[in-house]
Structure formats: C-alpha cells, structure tokens
Design brief:
extended, PPIase_dom_sf, EC 5.2.1.8, alpha+beta, rotamase, PPIase_FKBP_dom, cytoplasm, five-stranded antiparallel β-sheet, 507 residues
Amino acid sequence: MKSAVETLNPTRVKLTVDVTAEELKPSLDKAYKTIGEQVQIPGFRKGKVPAKLIEQRFGRAAVVQEAVNEALPELYTNAIVENDIKPLGQPEVDITDFPLEEGQGLTFTAEVDVRPEIKLPAFDTLEVEVDPIEVSDADLDERITELRERFGTLKGVERKAKKGDFVSIDLSATIDGNEIDSVSGVSYEIGSGTMLEGLDKALTGLKAGEETTFTSPLAGGEHEGQDAECTVKIESVKERELPELDDEFAQLASSFDTLDELKADLRSEVERTKRFEQGVQARDKVLDALLEAIDIPVPDGVVNEEVHNHLEGENRLDDDEHRAEVTESTRKQVATQLLLDEIVETQEIQVGQEELIEYLIMSAQQYGMDPNTFAQALDAQGQVPAIMGEVARRKALATVLESAKVKDTAGNVVDLNEAVDTGDDEADADEKPAEEKPVKKAAAKKSTAKKAAAKDGDEKPAKKAAAKKSTAKKAAAKDGDEKPAKKAAAKKSTAKKTATKKAADDK
C-alpha cells in the first residue's frame, strides 16, 4: 500500500492511499464468502456458492463494495500510522478509483483534522503573580458562624417570617387554571433560593396560617420555563438559635477542650483553603500565560462540531449571540487540551493505576454514584481511555506549575510544592448533620500544585466529534462501528461543552 500526505492547513491534512489488486484480494475473497453465507442458491449449500456465480447473480460491484467496507478502516488506520498523523475526529473519505474490473486496485482520499505542531517554551521562564494569603478576623468569624449554624436548634416563633427563618409550606402551581403540581409540608429556608424564583420574596412578611400568590417560571417538568401562578401557605415559622460561643461549644463541635483551641484550628483551616485557592489562581494564570505565549492553531471543524452539539442540546441553534460566546469558550478549551496533550507527549507523562482509581472515586462522588458502578459504566461506554487522557492532562498541568515562578502581589515567592493539608476535614464537616460530633482526621499530604491542577470540574471527559459522511465514503462507515480496534476514527476532540461550567469559566 502506498500513501501520501498533503498538508491543507496547520490543522488539516489529506491522505491519498493506493491499494493494489493483490493487497485487496484477501478482502475480496472474504466478501465472496460473506455474501455466499447470506444467500440461498438452489443446488449449492450456504458458503459453497462459486465466486463467478455470485458475480453473475449480484454483480461485481456488490462484492467490491462489501470488500471495501471491510478493508477501509484498517487501510486508513495503517496509513495514519505510517505517516505519523495524529487525527482529531472522523475522516472525510472519498473513493476515487473503485476496483470494478479484475486486477484493478483501490484508491481513496481521507481528509481529517490533526493535532498541530506546538513548540513549548521552557516552563521555568513562566512568571505569574497571585494574591497573597491573608486570614482576617472577618474570615474567622464567617467560619465560626457557619459552625454555630450547623449546631443550631430550631425554635417556633409567632411573628412575620424573614430571611434565614425555616418555614413549613404548602405550595401549588397552576397554568390557565389547571393545577400543574403541588406539595405539602415542605421545609424551606427563606433566602436560600433553592426552589421557585420569587418564593423568597413571597414568604417574607407572612405569618403562620397566611398565604399569598406570585408568578414564577417553572424550573422543571414538561412545563419548564412557562410562567405559572403559584400559591404558597405558611404552616409554621421557626428561627435558628445559635449556641453560645464558649468552651462548651468547642467541646460540642470539635475534639478541642477550649474555644481558643478551636479558633486556632479554624484559622489554620482558613489558611489552608486560601492556600489552595492561591494554587488554583496560579494554575489559571500559568495556563493563560502559556496560551498567550504560544500560537496554537485550532481545527475549525472540531470547534464547529462541539459548538453545534452544545447548542443543539440547549435547543438554541438559532441564538447567534450565544453561539458566539460558546464558540469563543470552546476554541479556548480545544487550544488548552491540545497544549496539555503536547505536554503529556513531550514530558512522557504516564498514568498509574492508583491515579486512575483516585480520579474515578472523585468523579463518582461528584455524580453521587458508587465508584464500582461508575467505573463499570465508563468501561461499557469505552470511556476509560478518555479518562486516562484527562488524568494525564492534569498531571501535565501540575508539571508546569511546579516549574513556573509564582509570586504574590507583595513580591513573596509562592512555593506551590509545599506540602499542606488537603482540607478534607473541612469538607467532611460540611456534610455532617448537626447532632454528630466531627472527628479530627490525619491530614493527607499533597503538593499545592497537584491539588490545584486536579481541582474537580475543570475538564470533563469530552464528547466525541461526530463522524462526517459523504456519499462516496459510506464504505468507510459501514463496518467501522463493529470493529473498535480498527475504527477509522482515531482520536476525537475532547473540547468540553462544559462541561461543566467550571471548564468553560475557568479556562
């Protein structure tokens, strides 16, 4: 097989592949056998029909079509390997010479988006400035208030409801006089904003036994987004009483004996949180500095496909203003991923089993799933390679962070490799019910750089770019879906629609 590559632009190439009749013969023989096993011809057993008879009955074109369908994915894969091409997405294949005559070979072309060449700078030349770590009394007071609220008690009151009160409510919604939904005895904190738009305002100023109506767009169901007339009645009003701030409270809320000890520990927690936030800020600024320093060509086809999928999912294909916003963020996401993939390759970054398991557990918790069930679902969907790629990119970003020069605005050098607590104590305490006493844990150690690079929600495993099929290239698609190992589409774009919200906002 002979193949040649034509560079159409920095992110797209055109492959021309010539296959001789001799090289195509095994696929033709297999095609005769396949068709022979599918048809019933009097006088012949299935699979024993002579090739000449198959050609007479069905025509050589049908046999060749079957042969090309079977051979094309592997021929394409061999060509990209031979020419060291790093594809992004599915190829657009056109068959230019179809072997209808005996002894004739096959010629096809394949256009595909590819990873551009990226020249990386020395990471130790990168310099960024971040905010200093400052723990104020206001920060400490906020943390203490949060802790007191977790251990507060609810007490019924005979007065108008206000922000921060807990109310038991009956709520119903109607559209054009027809009741859409209703709930009774629901507990709600005024000001939390976790239910209908306008509910907080409607409840404020009401007493137990009083009701009011307001108009609000519904947040879910078949009538999502439609304005409904909502009626809410307060059954009871309760306020939260906070415990006294003394040594007894310290013993209730922690393993410490005195309030001073508790405050000292909370101040340390605030400092750890701010150190982590400082690491995240450094990560974002270093990444932006890299993107500004390097001209990264981004494949338009990959961006357009991602944008279309995103807008289609939101049913906003005709929203030009939103399309422009999504296109801009997607272009940056694709550039970021191409950059990190280049770092992975040049730094020869590998992903260990423990790192993969850690990521799977973290992601499973995000989705509220059992880690084993989550891992099995990813494996069934063929997403494990994408997950490993994501972990590798995070390691690549951590590598850059560890080499870059980071200073705070006061001119102090920030050591992102300093081992600090992960802040797990704080995260766990947030999830504990008020009646439980937090238990202090041994703090895990991890570099700030690695923690910042691995922050949840930054990048999600990406949706794969959809295959583009022309009439002439349907042969490439027919068998490709059944042969993952030989699939004509190698790497897909992993630009996230967001993915997660953080992926679009942070990067």
